C-alpha cells in the first residue's frame, strides 16, 4: 500500500510539473501577442488619418480617374496621328470621323441596353442598342449633317462583317453533332428558311407589288435566323439543364449555322438574277457556275490550310486565324470585283469547314481570335445599318406594308417549323418552343439588307425603290424579332422545357459549343 501511494504521489508530482510547463511557456507568448496586437492597433489608429489625408491630397491621380484620363489621351493621340496622315477625313463630315462616331455610339448603345434589367425577364441583346444608335445618328438633323460615311466604305465594312459571319458559321459546324442529329438538323435548317422565302415572295408580290425575283430576294433576306441571338440564349438554357435530355439547345445551335448558309446562298443567287441583263436560263447557269467555282476553290484552300502551317510551329492559332481571315476576305471581296458574286461565300464556308475538321479541338483558339474580330465589326455593322434608314424618305404606308409582309411570312415560318418537328420525337410544348425560338433575325439581315440598295445605286438606279423597301423590311425585322425572340426564349424555356441537370454532360456540351 505504501509503495503504491508513493508511486501515485510521484506521478502526481510529475503531472503537476508537466502541467505547469505549458502554462509557463504559453503565458509569455500570450503577453507578447497581446503587446504586439496593441502596438499594431495603435499604429493603425495613428496611420488611419494619414491614409485618409493621402487619398484626398493625391496629386497625380490614381485608380479609375487615372485610367479614364490615360485612355482618353490615347484616343486623342490616335486621332491626331490619323489626322496628320489623312487630313480632313477625321474632321466632321469625313469618313473616318463618321466611322468613329458610329462605332463608339453603337458600343455605348449596346452597353446601355445591357444595363436595362427587368426582374424575371432575360436581358435584351446588345445589337438592338447598336442598331438604334445608328438610327438616331441618321435621323437627328444636327448630327446627321456631320456624321457621314461614303457608300463604298460602308459596303466594304459590311462585306467584311459578312465574311466573319460565314467564317464563324463554317468553323461552328460540328461534324459529330450533324451526324448525330442527321435529318432533324437538315429539316430545321432548310425547311423553314425556304418556306419563309417563298411566303415572303408571295405576300410581297401582292401586298408590296414586288416582281417575283425581288420577292424571292426579299424572302432570303428574311429567311435567316440569327445565331447572335439564338446561340447565347441556348447556352444559358443549357447551363441550367433545360432541354438537354433531348438535345434541343444543341440542335438549335447546330442548325442556326446551316440556316444562314442556305439564306446567304439563295440571296446571292437571286442577286445575280435581279441585276443581270441576260435571260433566266443564262442567269441560272451563271449562278451554278459561281457555286461550282466557290466549292472547288474553298475545297482546295481548305486542304491547304489543314497542313500549312504545320503543327510544330509557334503561335499556331494566330497564324491559322490570319490565313483564314485573309483568304476569306479576299475570296468574298475579290469574287465581287470579277463578277462571281455567289462564289466568295461558298468558298469561305467550304474552306473553314474542311480546315476545322482537321484541327478538331485546336480550332477553339482560332475561333477565339475570329470572335475578337467580330467584336470590332459588330458595332460597325449594326450602327451602319441603322444609319441607312431615314424616316424622312419613307412613305406614309411603307412601314405598315413592310410589317404586314414580314409578319405573314414569319407566321408561315413558325407553322412550318412546328410541322417539321412533329416527326422528331418532341412533345407539344417542345415543338412550340422550337418554333418560337426559330424567329429571331439580326446579323444576316444587317448584312444582306443594304447589299441590294448599294448594288442598285451603282448599276441600276431605276431599281432603287425596291431595294429601299428591302432595306426597310430588314431593319424592321431586326427591330421586332430580335428582342421578342430573346425574351420568348428566356421566358418560355424554363417553363416549357423539362430540366435534366447533369453537370458532366453540360460541361461537355459547353466545351464543344464554346466557340459560338
Automatic annotation (TrEMBL):
Bilayer disposition of the protein: Multi-pass membrane protein
Transmembrane segments: 63-85, 97-115, 185-208, 214-237, 258-285, 291-309, 398-420, 473-497
Domain Cation/H+ exchanger transmembrane, residue spans: 119-483
GO terms of molecular function: sodium:proton antiporter activity
Keyword Transferase included in the entry's annotation: no
Pfam families: Na_H_Exchanger (PF00999)
Keyword line: Antiport, Cell membrane, Ion transport, Membrane, Sodium, Sodium transport, Transmembrane, Transmembrane helix, Transport
Disordered: region residues: 1-47
Biased segments, Basic and acidic residues type: 1-15
Subcellular location: Cell membrane
One GO cellular component, as annotated: plasma membrane
Name assigned to this protein: Sodium/hydrogen exchanger 9B1 isoform 1
